[in-house]
Amino acid sequence: MPQQHDCHHSPDFCLSSYDFDLPEAQIAQHPPSERGTSRLMQMPRHGTGLPSHHSFQDLPALLPEGALLVANNSRVLQARLLGQRDTGGKVEFLLLTPLPLLLRSAQSGGGWQRAEGEGLVRCGGRIRDGEELVFGGRISVTVLGSGAFGLRRVRLAWQGELADAFTATGHLPLPPYIRRPDGAEDAGRYQTIYARSDKNGSVAAPTAGLHFTPQIRTALTEAGFGWAEVTLYVGYGTFSPVRCEDIRQHHMHREYIEVPGATVAAIRQARAEKRPIVAVGTTSARSLEGVVEQCGELQAFVGWTDIFLYPGRPIRVIDGLLTNFHLPGSSLLMLVSALTGRERLLAAYAEAVREGYRFFSYGDAMLVS
Question: Which of 93, 255, 256, 286 has a 20 to 30 Å separation from 303 between CA atoms?
Fold first, then answer.
């Protein structure tokens, strides 16, 4: 029998303790008119200091001296395909396997490349195993079987470069709380300016990075701040709600990460010089902390992480975090609470609601340092 926990002895472990009131009107449906003009709440990680209110362009003046920023350079793929079944009915497919894994196992034949992966299929009727779904002239998806949480095992077939085929045919998979189709503005604004074309395959943006402009990056460099990068291919599970009332029973979705040796070296040097490590986004934080959880120390790593951080779990690498404002009851809210303490974070969120901050992917930012 698994051990039963009474989470109410410690509210930090209760899902209901991570709820807060958020007016629908404060969920950002569009990016700000200009990148980098969002608001920025600065919150001390420790102590009793109160949040302060700024513009994101003030970031260089707010970061701790000499900080090393670690950002996620993954690129969002147009991973949502719309097509028709052979019955004539509409069908939608969302690819969830990172492109590097597909390309690594791809086999060629007859002018096409093929590889097996995972995705979500949505349509009006029942999908049969073995059914082929065609999306334009360059991509087809054959359903091989069903997995947990609605996942489908599939075989993709494509012509030319896989990323180009998705770019030509697919749509950006905007988060479910953005209640509109993707449009022309999203093609640029739902990518960070430092997203790398060879790191294509996320199904959601690492949204804390959406605020950076070339001018802000230059100002950070001139002010003596370091910059290093990791890759986490953001999975659709980032939007999966925590459903267990005792959050310790929640099983985190796994995501594919790459932490290069150069980033490890930069972090070790910053540590030796007593300069703080500030993760740009929860995905960067999970990449670094996930490696230490699996390997016992920070080292170069390529593989999967399913780390779940919440109050009481140790934070071993990062000293600060730049992040957006997150959903009630989400694993992301719990991660930030692991840094600040739940009650202090929820008090800051209540102030953000009162002050009219914009929430979620296209919303405003928070610096915990």
Answer: 93
CA gap 357, 39 in Å, rounded? 7
Write out pLDDT tens, residues 41-68: 999 999 888 999 999 999 999 999 999 9
- Distance CA(212)–CA(40), nearest Å, equals 12
Q: In what order do the strands lie in the sheet with 255-259?
A: 52-55, 39-43, 365-368, 320-324, 277-280, 68-72, 226-233, 255-259, 301-305
Summarised one tens digit per residue, pLDDT across range 197-234 is: 999 999 999 999 999 999 999 999 999 999 999 999 99
Quote the pLDDT of residue 315. Answer: 97
Residue linked to tokens 């997150």: 326
Q: What residue type is 13 in one-letter code? A: F
All domains in the chain, ordered by first residue? 7-75+187-368 (3.40.1780.10), 79-170 (2.40.10.240)
Cα dist from 322 to 45, 56, 208, 283, 367, whole Å: 11, 11, 6, 11, 4
pTM above 0.70, yes or no: yes
pLDDT bucket at 299, cuts 50 / 70 / 90: very high
Q: d(Cα 28, Cα 359) in Å, to the nearest integer?
A: 6
Minimal CA–CA distance to 63: which of 50, 78, 44, 82? 44
Amino acid in position 269: Q
Which pLDDT value is given to residue 2? 40
